[in-house]
Design goal:
The first copy, chain A, has a six-stranded mixed sheet, with helices on both faces. The first copy, chain A, has a three-stranded antiparallel sheet with strand order 7-10-11. A three-stranded antiparallel sheet of chain A has the order 8-9-12, covered by helices on one side. In chain A, helix 7 packs across helix 8 and helix 9 packs antiparallel against helix 10. Chain A has two domains: 125 residues, Creatinase/prolidase N-terminal domain (Creatine Amidinohydrolase, Chain A, domain 1), CATH 3.40.350; 212 residues, Alpha-Beta Complex (Creatine Amidinohydrolase), CATH 3.90.230.10. Chain A is elongated and about 70 Å long. With 349 residues, the first copy, chain A, is an alpha+beta fold. Chains A and B meet through helix 5, helix 8 and strand 7 of A and helix 5, helix 8 and strand 7 of B.
């Protein structure tokens, strides 16, 4: 069975489990995940036994040439209204939409029409990778990891952060990537201490930290990796902080396994950093799901208790940020397995 | 005055005009437009006399180093709730949010707290370009236009659509662009007849149409341009259709002027194409605003009656699509002036 047809079947099973008759969707990401058809401006209805995609007339030929397992419907008077009308025609009593995925205007219209709110169905489907998408994600991560080995030796004193940004991007594109998976972060010196630094024209000086947080999109799948190193002769403080983060990250990766809670992975990393006296400088969660989006379900944080499942892809990325001095973050994307995990972004560090 | 400080002042004037006490915002685009600070995960409140941005603690140093005219507030328990609490503390009676810009979850929370819905304030501010952003948009468009002259001679028989996509992207990046401004469309032969064709591995044959719809992001500003030509010896039908679209597009551009309705520009293009007997094959609107987003206010369509204002940037892009054969679309981004418009994407055709 076609992977997209299978996903729609899986969603139909979930509808039954959650005692729903249908799910209305308006975001390109979910519709693309279920059909392989990623054009903005469509809406979709999946009932327990059927699937319809509503779209501007000009998309119809294209849709029908690609998708056979869902019905394409031209909806000139608005795709949201057409999806609603279909749900009505089918007399669906308990149709839902996913609040987390919708715009306010769309959700408001559906809510007014009596559609229920029910989160997490497509997010749960998307979280567990299977079949071809695993290989695509592996390749996306491999491209990112390889780029580190190619670009790092070229990062010399005097280069700007933005020039390194562009070289990372070009290097990944030359290996087949579509583009960067987010606004890549290249931070030199004190800029490395800002977890969300905006890559700038700052030039690299001798003897300072270099932080690269980057990734690519390959076949719609996002990769995410961070490497930090010292350009020149590392200070005592850098060595110390680096070794704490490295220890925390390795322990986090070692903790990942099907059945383990997302919170437990965070706790391992946070514990090591706190025990070393740097707890207050680890200012973000330990990781997040990665796939069609760079940040997706589940989060690895103290507040999120989700059991990891085989096939989930998550990042493990503890960090310590010393304002005005430097920051260290080490991040890998990993694939959860029954016995542990596969590190997808392996580099020679 | 700093351009961002001025925009906040302009918004405060609009609040007064619309008898509102404040505006709550949660989308990065609007917050970035008003502050120059474009990090995801913030919320903003602008009252008639103040401006606050609520953010995760880890952004605060970065924010304060960039923004002096709005107050940065660390909001560890959620930025939306923090913005609400501030509005309450200030006793704002008529605070609003913009339904078109918000996610369902955020809008729902604000609506429940009694915040009003009021659309179009920031969209109207963003539509009229001024100062530095005009020069940035010009440059973005100039890069896109130049790329056509460079890439076109290299589009030979046998090349794939995707390889041309990448060359357009690389060429624009070499001129300073950050990246493409949307999923660029490269369509060969019958693929040119799909207005939203997904660029593929199809190879160019002798004697068929080539359609390039592309643009770049330069300094956050999007450009948008489409060129169509015949690779080889044009058929009689292609020549005929091309000359109709060209006539329609030139007439549309000639119609653009401050004070003219968006609908009137659409009517001019649509009239010429309909009079030539191809009305049913022009399946989309004539254009759209362009700026921080590739599609923004106002739309140029039969259904939208907005007077153009000097400083607005819009596209003019009529097309005729003959399914299974070929399509022709010609598009320029133009800047509205008091006496007409400045074509920003001029190429030697």
């Amino acid at each position: 069975m076609n992977i997209h047809a299978k996903r729609i079947k899986d969603l139909q099973h979930m509808l039954k489990e959650h005692r729903l008759d249908g799910l209305l969707m308006g975001r390109t990401l979910e519709i693309g995940f279920l059909t392989g058809f990623y054009l903005d401006g469509c809406a979709m209805l999946v009932s327990r036994s059927g699937a319809w995609v509503f779209m501007p007339r000009m998309f119809i030929e294209h849709f029908r040439s690609k998708v056979s397992f869902a019905e394409g419907v031209a909806a000139d008077a608005g795709v949201e209204a057409a999806a609603l009308a279909k749900a009505k025609e089918l007399k669906l009593k308990k149709a839902a939409f996913e609040p987390e995925s919708e715009t306010y205007v769309r959700g408001r219209a559906w809510r007014k029409a009596g559609i229920l709110e029910h989160d997490g169905l497509t997010a749960a489907l998307r979280a567990v990778k299977e079949g071809e998408e695993i290989e695509t994600l592996r390749k996306s991560c491999r491209i990112a990891a390889k780029a580190f080995g190619i670009v790092k030796p070229r990062i010399k004193t005097g280069r700007t952060e933005l020039s390194v940004y562009r070289e990372l991007e070009d290097t990944m594109q030359a290996m087949g990537a579509k583009g960067p998976s987010f606004n890549l972060i290249v931070g030199f010196g004190p800029n490395s201490a800002m977890p969300h630094h905006e890559t700038s024209e700052r030039r690299l000086k001798n003897n300072e930290a270099v932080l690269l947080d980057y990734g690519c999109v390959y076949g719609n799948y996002c990769s995410d990796i961070t490497r930090t190193y010292f350009h020149g002769r590392p200070t005592e403080e850098f060595r110390k902080v680096y070794s704490i983060v490295e220890k925390a990250q390795k322990a986090g990766v070692a903790k990942v396994r099907a059945g383990v809670s997302s919170r437990a992975v965070d706790a391992v990393c946070r514990g090591i950093i706190s025990d070393a006296g740097y707890g207050q400088y680890f200012t973000h969660g330990t990781g997040h799901g990665v796939g069609l989006e760079i940040h997706e379900f589940p989060r690895l944080s103290p507040r999120v208790d989700v059991p990891l499942r085989a096939g989930m892809a998550v990042t493990v990325e503890p960090g310590i940020y010393l304002h005005g001095k430097f920051g260290v973050r080490i991040e890998d994307s990993v694939l959860v397995t029954r016995t542990g995990c596969e590190v997808l972004t392996k580099t020679a560090r």
